[in-house]
Each structure stands twice: as structure tokens, then as C-alpha cells.
TrEMBL record:
<feature type="domain" description="Gfo/Idh/MocA-like oxidoreductase N-terminal">
    <location>
        <begin position="6"/>
        <end position="125"/>
    </location>
</feature>
<dbReference type="GO" id="GO:0016491">
    <property type="term" value="F:oxidoreductase activity"/>
</dbReference>
<dbReference type="InterPro" id="IPR055170">
    <property type="entry name" value="GFO_IDH_MocA-like_dom"/>
</dbReference>
<dbReference type="InterPro" id="IPR050984">
    <property type="entry name" value="Gfo/Idh/MocA_domain"/>
</dbReference>
<dbReference type="InterPro" id="IPR036291">
    <property type="entry name" value="NAD(P)-bd_dom_sf"/>
</dbReference>
<dbReference type="GO" id="GO:0000166">
    <property type="term" value="F:nucleotide binding"/>
</dbReference>
<dbReference type="InterPro" id="IPR000683">
    <property type="entry name" value="Gfo/Idh/MocA-like_OxRdtase_N"/>
</dbReference>
<comment type="similarity">
    <text>Belongs to the Gfo/Idh/MocA family.</text>
</comment>
<keyword id="KW-0560">Oxidoreductase</keyword>
<dbReference type="Pfam" id="PF01408">
    <property type="entry name" value="GFO_IDH_MocA"/>
</dbReference>
<feature type="domain" description="GFO/IDH/MocA-like oxidoreductase">
    <location>
        <begin position="134"/>
        <end position="253"/>
    </location>
</feature>
<protein>
    <submittedName>
        <fullName>Putative dehydrogenase</fullName>
    </submittedName>
</protein>
<dbReference type="Pfam" id="PF22725">
    <property type="entry name" value="GFO_IDH_MocA_C3"/>
</dbReference>
Amino acid sequence: MTTKKLKWGIMGCAGIAKRAVIPGLHLSELNEASAIASRDEENAKRTAEELNIPTAYGSYEALLEDDAIDVIYIPLPNHLHREWAIRAAEAGKHILCEKPLALTEKEAAEMAEAAAKAGVLLSEAFMYRYHPRYAMIKNIIDEGRIGEVRSIRSAFTFNNAGHKENVRYRKEWGGGSLYDVGCYPINAARLLLGKEPEAVTVQAMFSEQHDNVDMMASGLIEFGGSVSLTFDCGMWAAFRNPLEVLGDEGIIEVPSAFVTGEPGSGNFYVSAKGERKEIVVPHVNAYTEQADQMANAIHGKQTILYGAADALANMRVIDACLASAHSRTRVTL
């Protein structure tokens, strides 16, 4: 028996939705982009026409009232995640919410509670981890091919500082590099190490030109067992997004850890026993994989890989990083 496609409602016309998530849904055999909403109805209609979405709404409320919609995708500015995720849960919709899930762990916990009460799934949209290479990397680590893990290094930076009207530069809206891109190295280290941090120390550059959000940040995340993540993130620096896992017998290098586009861009390298090998990874759309895993979980075919508990754990670390950056002290978790 064929499982019916899940109907997705897109809450807002954000760039990430138009550029990546909606095209990913169009490629899926388990999901379809059925409706899109904006507070500007003309914008919703225009986007729906451009991206071949059947229905457009002029309010988020109207989208939630559509009984045909199974899943709500929320790419709204960070400060709106809590409100609309809770309202989506109360409307009986499953939720995929852009990272960071909320502004604080407390907000995230309220979202998780609402989803649990309504019996719907809530997941955070870290699409990179659905790419098959992360399962491959974790297997290499778990099999001991690089020996004992000693440390992880990662970075995610880009330069958008000239666009000062961007929502990333509104402090009250959850702007800043830790929220926007620093969350990726943190999330990846938690995923690959399979445990939670014990303490963080972060130094940040807060910019008066950008509403005093953190435009750059560098940090040390302690995982215990003398293993740590060192990372930097920024919105006022050249683009890069590497990740390196250092073992006592080898190294895993991922040149483009969080962004994949052209075939081959997901490949990575393993150095061990005196040779460096390129690991060729199947070319897939991580956004499609993310939606398909959620569909399978909703249909009860598998357990959701990254549910609300994982998102809360990541928010706990981000809270500590921001506290450390503002106080310039080491913060324990």
C-alpha cells in the first residue's frame, strides 16, 4: 500500500525556504509543499506561483486553519519560533523549525512541551546531519579507524555585514553569529562524539554597527575525557565551513562540513596509517533527506532521529556560550 504524501505548509517566504527547503520537498516522494503563508498576501501568491505551490495565504493563522496540512515548516526570524511552533502544535501540526529552535533553552522546553501535549513531532532543521557522510564519519570514528578522538575543530563564517537591515543584526530578534552559524559546529561535535559538553568558554566581538549582536565568536567546548571542540563562527569574515576530527592515529577532514551543492562537494578525507584517502559520498539533497526522515517518523516507520530533546540540548550549549561571551568567563553546564 502506498503511503500518502505529507502535505507541508511553509510559514513565511524566507530565503532558506525558497532556495533550499521547498525545492527539497519537490524532490521528495514522501512529501509535498502544499501551501505557503506570508503576512503580505501578494508576496505569498507570488512565491507560490514561482515555486509551484498550490495554495497561498495572507496570514499564518490561515495556514494553521488548513485541515489538509500535516507539517508546518517555520523559517521565521528566531524570536518568532516559540510562538508559532506552539500555535502549530496546538493546531495539531507536526513541526520542522529552523535552527536555532528558540532564543533560550527555556523557550525550547515550552515548545517541546506543547508538541508532546499535542502528540506531534517537533524537530530542528539542521539539514547537514541527514547527509549520508555524517553516518559514514561516525562509523569511521566508532570503528576506531583514527584511534581515540582527541579533539574536533570546526568553523562556519561568511560576510554579510554590509546588509545592516538583515534580521541577523537585530538583537531582540535573536541575531548574532552564535545563533546563526555557531550552532552548527556545536551540533556536529555533539553528534559525532555522542555526548554532551561539560563547560564552555567563548570570546566574541559585539558590533555597535549591528545592534550589538555577536558578529564573530571563538570558543572552546569541553566534552569531558579531555576531548574538546574548538570553533569559530562569524558573519563578518570570509566564507568557510570546515570540520576536522583529530584522533591519536589519524584525521578526518571535511572541507565543506555544512554546505553541499555540486556533486563531490560532500566528499571528505581520512588520513591514517601513512596515507590520505578521499571518501566519495553519494550526492543527495540533504533537505529532501531531512523531510523524508520526518515523514517516515510521522508514519511510524522509524523513530525520529533528532527530536525535541536533541534541540533542547543544543540550546543549552548556546545559552552557555552566550553567557560566557558576555561575562568573559568559563561557564559550566
